[in-house]
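Translate structure to sequence.
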């Protein structure tokens, strides 16, 4: 099994409200950063231009605050024929703060239409924990 992929994110002051809570839109951006980084680590071509985001769902589990780093951990990935589900858990100070699930669709070299996930990436995903149904 592949190592679990995690990145550390340092909240910036402009991402907060008056009480130091991280804005929900910022969390969506942090999930995107985690997705891009894990894809770059798995796919030698780093062809993020061939992927589009089809769906994203975020469950806010606890407050996220300014002043303490957040860890974004990719907890599972499940490839379909042309799509890929990526699950990510955010934690701060040992607390689960948000869970995100994204569905990405792979586009062909010429763009515009869904195409099968490249074999090289599919092979890299074989050892990664699978996202549940």
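Result:
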């Amino acid at each position: 099994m592949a190592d679990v992929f995690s990145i550390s994110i340092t909240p910036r002051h402009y991402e907060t409200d008056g009480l130091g809570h991280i804005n929900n839109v910022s969390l969506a951006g942090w999930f995107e950063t985690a997705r891009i980084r894990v894809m770059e680590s798995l796919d030698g071509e780093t062809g993020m231009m061939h992927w589009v985001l089809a769906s994203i769902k975020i469950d806010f589990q606890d407050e996220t605050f300014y002043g303490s780093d957040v860890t974004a951990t990719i907890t599972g990935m499940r490839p379909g024929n042309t799509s890929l589900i990526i699950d990510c858990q955010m934690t701060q100070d040992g607390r689960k703060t948000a869970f995100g699930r994204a569905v990405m669709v792979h586009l062909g070299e010429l763009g515009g239409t869904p195409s099968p996930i490249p074999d090289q990436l599919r092979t890299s995903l074989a050892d990664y924990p699978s996202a549940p149904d």
